[in-house]
Write a structure and sequence with these properties.
about 120 residues; Translation Initiation Factor Eif1; translation regulation; DENR/SUI1_TIF; mRNA binding; alpha+beta; 5-stranded mixed sheet; SUI1
Length: about 120
């Protein structure tokens, strides 16, 4: 064990017990499901957005990098901004139909419109 590993410890700064093992954050990266097995939901949303409409894609199971990559693809094809975090992709504007078509074209066959 390194001597200066205090940044990696969780919930304990110091222990006088010589046999104490510090809890560490295990970065278990989630494995992305293949595109045909993803069950994505596409809906329009305007809650907590100042009345602006956004297209919300939820239900993504996988790594954060894959989510951001898919979000980047959707945003660039729609020509708008947005974000991809916490398992959901936000595309600014009403692009529900276009996002559905793009996802099916990319192999996300179990994609459904909601609402």
């Amino acid at each position: 064990m390194k001597n200066n590993d205090w940044k990696e410890r969780l919930n304990v700064v110091y222990s006088t017990n010589p046999d104490y093992n510090y809890e560490r954050e295990d970065s278990e990266e989630q494995v992305s499901l293949e595109a045909s097995r993803q069950k994505l939901r596409v809906q329009l949303d305007r809650k907590n957005r100042g009345g602006k409409v956004v297209t919300l894609v939820t239900g993504f199971v996988g790594t954060e990098n894959d989510l951001k990559e898919l979000g980047k693809l959707l945003k660039s094809k729609c020509g708008v901004g947005g974000s991809a975090k916490d398992g959901e992709i936000i595309v600014q504007g009403d692009f529900k139909q276009k996002v559905l078509e793009l996802l099916k074209k990319e192999g996300y066959t179990q994609t459904k419109p909601v609402g």
